[in-house]
Amino acid sequence: MTTQKSSASQSLISNYQNQLACFASRNHHIYAQHLIHQIHMPVNSDTPFNQQITDCFNFIKAQGYPHPILIGAIPFDTNQNATLNFYSEFEQTTPNSAQQPAHTATPNTMLHQKKLVERPVFEHSVKLALKAMNSGNMQKIVLSQATEFEFNQQHSPEQLFTTLTRQNPDAYSFLIPVEDNQYIFGASPELLLSRQQQQVRSNPLAGSRPRSSNTEENNRIRNELYHSAKDRYEHQFVIDNIRHQLSKYCNEYSASETPDILTTSTMFHLSSVFQGQLQPSAPDALNLALHLHPTPAVCGTPTPVAKQFILSHEGYNRHYYSGLNGWMDAEGNGEWVVTIRNGLLNQNKIRLYAGAGIVVGSDAATEWLETEAKMQTMLNVFQF
Ligand SMILES: C=C(O[C@H]1C=CC=C(C(=O)O)[C@@H]1O)C(=O)O
Q1: What is the DSSP code (8-state) at residue 293?
Q2: Residue 81 CA: distances (Å) to CA of 114, 315, 325
Q3: Burial class, 17, CB count within 10 angstroms (exposed 0-12 / middle 13-18 / buried 19+)
Q4: Where along the chain do its domains lie?
Q5: What is the C-alpha to C-alpha distance for residues 127 and 355, in angstroms, rounded to an integer?
Q6: Is the ipTM of this complex over 0.90?
Q7: CB neighbours of 194 closer than 8 A, spacing ≥ 6?
């Protein structure tokens, strides 16, 4: 496939060829290699990001590539820059974990680790949030922490991705180039939104318990989560919000009446499904997903109050964590997942993130332990 283009179109030509992006779900794996253009701008109503997306797709198609793809990452705070990567073509395969090489990540030595949010700071924020709830200002908030690890050498992004998909075959695994030669990577259990022609689907999660290694104990934990009034309450904010936002665009839809339990490599979650038939005028997959973001699974209720609390109290910049990532084709079909159980690869440093939903009745110490358990999904990649 040629990458030589006319001088008139040089501004859209890749300086970044061979920056691989990968996105895997249970049903398919997408690999895209020939990066044509990267947009870095906020995806909010103040910027012309939609026009730029249309221009990029049109430009790539005019060069003779009929099936371009956008694979990108949107931050938690949409006032910060998103990264939208445009590829001229992509390969789509059916997952077959038996054929994947059974390696773990490069055997690097970890030199240092540093908490960006220490446990007392997190627990203090939880207590402040509970106070705000008791005075009626907020009903739910998701608070998070991050840890940075420094290794003696850089991990191979491709190996990280292979390990993630092998360890988490039911998750949405991703590896996406972002600014400054960094990558975000992860294994998210949470589908924010998929659109395939007029079919839309969302699988919100909220309410969690760490898994044990003992089967009987796991049965007890699942049962306790399923019947926990506090976790059902925490979950309800998310499904109510998704139903409210998406039903506006649907001719018909259905939503789970009671949640199921979704099992990941490290956690149990309460899980609901929303499915609908979109109206002909409904927005494309990315814009529909942006209407949902940030859901109460990563922010809180009411959204503006929770978002402001997070920005003022959390004590670090979430950036891509708890945003969304995924892909979209030029017809507006796509899959966007919540950027959780993820990390940021920056040369020989890796930053990992995890959060937990807080409602009245939450206990600060238990919530901290929940974030640590969630982080284990990523730590397993490095065999810690
Ligand atoms: C915010 C995270 O998880 C969300 C998704 C599932 C369950 C959650 C919870 O029970 O708190 C969170 O809302 C995270 O993993 O960092």
Answers
A1: P
A2: 25, 19, 13
A3: exposed
A4: 111-170+190-382
A5: 15
A6: yes
A7: 200, 201, 202, 285, 334, 335, 336
Of 178, 157, 142, which Cα lies nearest the Cα of 325? 178
Residue type, 313: H
Look at residue 267 in the predicted model and tell me its pLDDT: 98
The number of the ligand 1 atom at minimal distance from the alpha carbon of 338 is: 5
Question: Could you tell me if 71 and 176 are in contact, meaning their C-beta atoms sit under 8 angstroms apart?
Answer: yes
Residue to probe by mutation, ligand 1, list 374, 375, 378, most atoms within 8 Å of CB: 374
Diameter of the chain measured on Cα atoms = 66
Helix or strand holding residue 301 (H, E): strand 300-301
Share of the chain above pLDDT 90, in %: 89
Distance from C-alpha of 174 to C-alpha of 184, rounded to nearest angstrom: 8
Instruction: Note whether 167 and 102 are within 8 A (CB).
Output: no
Q: Which residues are catalytic?
A: 140, 190
111-170+190-382 topology per CATH: Anthranilate synthase (3.60.120)
**Mean pLDDT over each residue of the chain, to the nearest integer:** 93
Which is the closest atom of ligand 1 to the Cα of 207?
Answer: 10
Strand order in the sheet with 260-263: 205-210, 267-271, 260-263
Write out pLDDT tens, residues 182-202. 999 999 999 999 999 999 999
CA of 338 to the centre of ligand 1 (A): 10
Q: What is the rounded distance in angstroms from the CA atom of residue 167 to the CA atom of residue 104? A: 9
Cα 143 to ligand 1 centroid, rounded to whole Å: 9
Query: CA-CA distance, 174 to 261, in Å (whole number)?
Result: 23
